Inverse folding.
């Protein structure tokens, strides 16, 4: 992403001054899904573990934050951190079976977890059952009033922060150990990598990031119910990573923009969005196996040919 | 009461079992995990609905048209879409078949709309009632039909794979494609046939379940999830495994729904399945393979 860092001060920061509040709210959603999809990316690309149940962490984060803010009037910042922490604890619990199963077996375990969380949320009183929780307030902090502009900057700041932290980790000893474990678990273990620790850490980090995104989502949308956190959301999160480009924050952001933006772009036409989305997924995977980010790297292709 | 639930579980489970069977056959021969499987069957259920309810055709004739259509969909999807991408990563495979799922769902919405369409039961007579000891078991005729068709399909498939030359050739391709090719087996044809079988089984499952679930774009979602779970529980590569997996999931689900909690039926069933997978990570009848470092 370093090459694209100019994007932040010149495009993303001045965006609110253009004065399109609707566009801004779409960008807030893109940012939120970017955070959740980064969580997915950490699990799939960094650690090589497949998950089709990450919507559950999203739901845990959203509900923790919403219950704390609405029922207990906790300040948003604390609710936000608590939702990340709680999702992380759940992530470690879910990560435990993942130490034994892999591949499609892991897909079933995570899918089961996703479906179970959705069903459990629908049964309990404190989560509002199938009706969900309404009127979740938009956070305000100190001199900053609750507004889409403020929300936009919060999300942008958090995405940037996550990017810095992740690029630090990926060059550190732990990051290298994690990549070694992904490429060959047995070889990594032979070199003294504690694969148990790193797998759990990947699940914990993924869950925490997705939980934080869920907390932001609850405050941005203002209404949550179990049906928003179904299997489709888990698959969408995975699709954002694959469609955008694995292993890069920029790619994930493109994937999130693609998924959030497409329905708005097509809302004027009388075509079913699902068909377009499906065709787009298939075409991208067939012709751009490394994701949409490949389009931006066409110049790299020419460079390689010269050598 | 317990027996009643177990019988009901066997009937639901037999549907899970043939969905698992269809997934496993396609996976074993071509190595493609098809997450759009249920939705391919859903299209066939709509074809059946169109032939039977809208055009007023005979039940048996519409049934054959729909199943043939299902086998054609299987052939077209494998040949046209999935053959070039057989060797991509599992995550990419989930996403490409998810793309197919979205296309099928959107197509159904575009053509037939979002309404719940009804298909009548084939057998509408009085249910069978068995009495023994102090207990009583009631089985609707349609469920007998489901059980009969599923058993017939399973037996036919096992006979085909074990006794005919073509079935043996298909198993050879599943075991080792390169060597099968060297022995003169047309592996491309075997892959197409495996998907034709898989597609028609999917269509059959959708038509059998349609009277209970109604016909609508997401009608196969839960059957597909449970079929996939059954395949994994059975070990994913074994045909007896997917049958045992499917039927045991059906029984577990019904017993949990009756005796523990109706609202959390799926949660508890899935928890039991996850527990089984933790104890036996390769599935009930799966085998552990030595892996290259």
């Amino acid at each position: 992403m370093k090459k694209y860092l100019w994007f932040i001060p010149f495009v993303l920061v001045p965006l609110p001054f253009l004065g399109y509040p609707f566009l801004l709210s779409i960008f807030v959603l893109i940012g939120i899904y970017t955070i959740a999809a980064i969580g997915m990316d950490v699990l799939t690309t960094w650690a090589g573990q497949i998950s089709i149940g990450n919507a559950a962490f999203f739901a845990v984060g959203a509900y923790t934050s919403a219950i704390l803010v609405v029922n207990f009037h906790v300040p948003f910042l604390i609710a936000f951190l608590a939702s990340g922490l709680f999702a992380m604890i759940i992530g470690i619990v879910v990560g435990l079976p993942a130490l034994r199963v892999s591949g499609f077996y892991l897909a079933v375990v995570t899918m089961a977890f996703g479906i179970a969380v959705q069903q459990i949320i629908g049964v309990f009183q404190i989560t509002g059952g199938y009706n969900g929780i309404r009127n979740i307030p938009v956070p305000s902090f100190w001199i900053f009033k609750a507004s889409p502009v403020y929300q936009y900057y919060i999300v942008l700041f958090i995405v940037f922060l996550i990017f810095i932290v992740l690029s630090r980790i990926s060059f550190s000893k732990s990051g290298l150990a994690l990549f070694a474990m992904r490429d060959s678990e047995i070889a990594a273990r032979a070199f003294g990598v504690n694969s148990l620790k790193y797998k759990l850490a990947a699940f914990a980090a993924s869950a925490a990031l997705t939980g934080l995104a869920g907390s932001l989502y609850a405050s941005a949308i203002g209404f949550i119910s179990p049906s928003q956190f179904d299997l489709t959301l888990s698959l969408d999160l995975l699709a954002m990573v694959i469609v955008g480009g694995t292993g890069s924050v920029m790619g994930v952001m493109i994937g999130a923009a693609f998924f959030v933006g497409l329905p708005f772009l097509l809302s004027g036409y009388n075509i079913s969005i699902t068909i377009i989305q499906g065709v787009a997924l298939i075409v991208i995977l067939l012709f751009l196996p490394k994701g949409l980010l490949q389009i931006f790297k066409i110049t790299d292709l020419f460079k390689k040919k010269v050598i | 009461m317990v027996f009643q639930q177990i019988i009901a579980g066997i009937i639901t489970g037999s549907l899970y079992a043939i969905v698992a069977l269809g997934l496993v056959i396609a996976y074993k021969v071509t190595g493609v995990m098809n997450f759009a499987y249920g939705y391919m069957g859903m299209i066939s259920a709509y074809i059946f609905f169109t032939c039977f309810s809208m055009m007023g055709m005979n039940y048996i004739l519409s049934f054959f048209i729909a199943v043939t259509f299902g086998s054609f969909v299987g052939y077209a999807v494998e040949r046209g879409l999935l053959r070039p991408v057989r060797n991509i990563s599992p995550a990419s495979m989930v996403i490409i078949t998810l793309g197919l799922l979205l296309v099928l769902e959107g197509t159904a919405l575009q053509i037939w709309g979002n309404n719940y369409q009804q298909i009548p039961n084939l057998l509408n007579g009085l249910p069978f009632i068995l009495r023994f000891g102090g207990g009583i078991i009631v089985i609707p005729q349609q469920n007998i039909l489901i059980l009969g068709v599923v058993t017939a399909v399973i037996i036919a498939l096992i006979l085909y794979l074990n006794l005919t030359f073509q079935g043996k050739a298909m198993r050879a391709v599943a075991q080792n494609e390169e060597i099968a090719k060297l022995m003169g087996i047309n592996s491309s044809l075997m892959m197409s046939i495996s998907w034709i079988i898989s597609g028609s089984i999917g269509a059959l499952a959708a038509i059998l379940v349609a009277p209970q679930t109604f016909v609508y774009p997401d009608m196969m979602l839960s059957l597909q999830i449970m079929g996939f779970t059954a395949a994994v529980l059975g070990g994913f590569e074994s045909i007896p495994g997917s049958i045992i997996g499917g039927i045991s999931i059906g029984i577990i689900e019904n017993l949990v729904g009756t005796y523990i909690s109706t609202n959390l039926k799926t949660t508890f069933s899935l928890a039991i399945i996850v527990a089984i997978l933790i104890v036996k990570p390769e599935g009930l009848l799966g085998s552990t393979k030595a892996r290259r470092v």
Observations:
- The two ends of chain B are 52 Å apart (CA to CA).
- The longest strand of chain B covers residues 128-132.
- The mean pLDDT of chain B is 88.
